[in-house]
Every structure is written in structure tokens, then in C-alpha cells.
Amino acid sequence: MVDMICDYYSTVGQQRVKPGVEPGFLRGQLPASPPEQPEAFEDVLRDVQEKLMPGVVHWQSPSFFAYFPSNTSFPAALADMWAGALSMIGFSWAASPVSTELEMAMMDWLAELCGLPAAFRCNGGAGPGGGVIQGTTSEAVLVALLAARARALRGRVQADKLRLVAYSSDQAHSCFRKACMVAGVDHVRMLPTSAEHNWELQPEVLQAAIDADLAAGLLPCFVMATIGTTSSCAVDPVARLAPVAARRVSNGLGRAGGCGAWLHVDAAYAGAAALLPEQRSAHFGDLGAVDSYSFNPHKWLLVNFDCCALWVADAGPLKEALSLTPVFLQATGNALDYKDWQIPLGRRFRSLKLYFVLRMYGAEKLRAYLRHHIALAAAFAAALQADPRFELAAPQRFGLVCFRLRDVPRQVNAALLEAVNASGRLLIIHTELGGAYTLRLAVGSASTQLEHVEAAWEVIKGAADQVLRQHAERTAAEAPAAVPARA
Ligand SMILES: *Cc1c(COP(=O)(O)O)cnc(C)c1O
Q1: Given ligand 1 and candidates 59, 133, 136, 137, which is best to mutate, with the most ligand atoms within 8 Å of its CB?
Q2: Residue 202 sits in which domain range?
């Protein structure tokens, strides 16, 4: 199996990134029912190669530039093999002490590498804050929202649940809206952004929305800012949003207290860049007033899926929202039980892959790795800007470049995307920015080198020649026939 994986990595760069299969391709290739008797490992592996691999999109291809990267590495994969072998369910300290203790240590290591505020450290579970590994950002955002809701409802009546409001920009990931759906927060404000402000949420816009909701008798509860939006890697000005979010709302019951809205920062993809001091000072700013912060090492930090790092400055509200202790789980005087920091009870030993990756690469190599991708993205953006047919659709940030052919109808850019991906030589996706069709190229596959980015640019230029020629021919054909000259 390990040989097969090594062979795969050494040839994946030559394969079509996206397979040419149609929906239902696997039906008819598998027996309709599971086997009654055991089958040989060789037969299973052969079917993996022959039947399953043709349906794989090669996310590990050096020419995979779609979505955001989904990194993996040998240290991470090997750690996950060991975690799979142990398969212990470390929901509490007692259920497997090493699970909790390694996770606290790794979250503190990661917090230090990213320069996060001291309040986010686990300090061995002494509190009040700390970090926890969730499966995905979607779970982290939901957990943060549940904590926010618990805190906002302190000292309030049941009916107040219906008055809670959550805010983000209209560029926030759909997981924000989904978290509101799941948590039953019905008042959801996805506030407008504009090209003028590079698709960043402006504090005045948040302030106006909060004021309007307060005037209408609602309760601002949760603000989600994004560092590195999925569409364009826009960076919301967290330090300037924090005081707006924090304005205290009285709980109306005459008690001391009431609180401001909880501020969560979603840095799912871009959070890895916080390892770089220059990126940190340019894009992350002061996170000191943030209630919770999350990013996915499984995107751009060489840790295979799934691994989302979530930190909270105060775990109290999280535990109010999520802790329940049936008799069979009663603790034996321990530091911290991660079952109270997440939705499921069971949890994998995910900290092991962080431990392997952080030790076997070391911070210096990880920084070089991230800088390498950022430089490749900058090189692509520079090539693009030197070609007058193209324009950047947003400032180039981290490993992402958003671009389009300028001054053409949207279907020409759509045709460009289709032609590029049909080549099979790379894979990119598109987004909408201000209603404009926009292509996005995200550099970040573990094996991507300059040659792959240069080859991608050649394919894109060639496809642009083709779609612009077709567009010119179509325009000429549709133009009104010239008025015949009179004799
Ligand atoms: C990828 C991404 C998400 C979703 O991440 P999951 O871990 O798949 O839930 C959320 N927010 C941003 C900004 C992302 O880029």
C-alpha cells in the first residue's frame, strides 16, 4: 500500500487533474451486494486502481489550483495510521489521558507559532481559555455560535432566544448561515461589501446594522469576521470591528451584566499564513479582543483532513452550551474534558498528526513552505498583470489570485474557465465578485513548483486566445450587415 502511494505521488503530476467520468460511472462496476466471504487484499487493491481511481479528482496534483488546497504530508499520514491503529475515543481526560494532554500541548504550540493572544492558551487546562481540534471550520463556527448564544442568554428568559441576531459580511462562508440555521438564530445579517473596500466588512456598516437591530428590540449576539474569504481572500478589519461588536447590551432584567456580541474570526484557509510575521502584521492585526478564532491546518499546513484548530478566550460559555455529564462519564477530578468543547462525544486522536508535522518539519521549514506558495501566487499575478487582456479582480493575497479577461461579456470568462479545465492540465474554479464572473487560482498544493504555475499560465493564455477569437468571430457575425454603397 505504501509503495502504491509513493507511485501515485510520483505520477500524479502527469495525470488529468479532473477525471472525465459522468455521474453513475461506478454503478454496474461493483457487485450489487457485499461479499459473504472474505476477499483477498490484492483483489481489493486491484479494484481500487482499476475501478475507483478513475473517479478521483487529484487534489494532490501540483496543478490543482481549485477551491483552497487540501494539504497532506507523509508525517501527517503516518501519524494518522498510528491514530487509526489505536482508535481510542478521547472524549474525556480519563478516556485516554494522552489524547487530551497532547491536544492541549499542540494547540498551545500552534497558538505560539501563529502569534495568537495569550488568552487562547490551554495552560494545561487551568483556563479560562484554550484550544480544541474540531473536524472542520463549519463545526468550529457552530460551536462558537452556540457559546455566543449561551453567553447572550445568561440571565434572560426563554423568549429572548427569538431575538438573537448574527452578523457577517456577504463574503462570509456559507457555514456561517448554516450554523445559524442549526442553532436556530433566525435574524441573520450578511452585510454588504464592495470592490471599493476590497470586499471587506466596514465597521460603520456593522455599527449601523447593530444600531438598527437594537432600536428594533433585537439582541446582537454573534459577529463573524473572516481573514481570507473564500471568494477573494478579503480580510475583514478585525481590530476595528472588535469595539463595534463588543458594545454592551443590557439584559434588561436590572442585573449587572449584559454583554456585547461574541466576535469569532474565521481564518480557515489564511490562518496558516499567521506563521509568517510579515503576513501577521499585514493582515491579522491585533486579535486581543477576539472571543474565538479558528483555522484549518488541513488546508495549507501539511496536515491531512480533518483538522480545524479552534481557540476561545473563555471556555465558560462553550461549556454552558455543550456540557452534559451522564453517570457513566462522570469525571475523576481532571483538568479538561474535550467532550464539553464540541458537538459529538467521540473524537479522533487528531493532535498526533499536528505533533508529527510540527516536529518533522519544524517552524522554519513550514514558514519557507508558506512563503514559497505566496511567492508563486505573486509570480502568477505579475504575469497576468503584464498581459493587457487580463485584470486582477481583487488584490492578490496569500496564495490566491482572482482574475478575469477585461471588457468582455461574462460568457467569455465562463468559456475561458471551461477551456482551461477541459485541458485536464490544471483545475481552477470561478466565483462571483460584485456580480462579475471571476476566475480564481489558489496556489497551495504541497508539491506545486514554479514550473506548474508557469505551465498553468501558458494553458490559460492559450485558452484566452481561443475564447477571444471565438468571441470576435461571433461579434462580427452578429454585427448588422454593412449598408451597401449606393451607385
Ligand atoms: C474552507 C472554508 C470554510 C469551510 O471549511 P470546512 O472546514 O470545510 O468547514 C469556512 N470558511 C472559509 C473562509 C473557508 O475558506
Answers
A1: 137
A2: 78-327+334-357
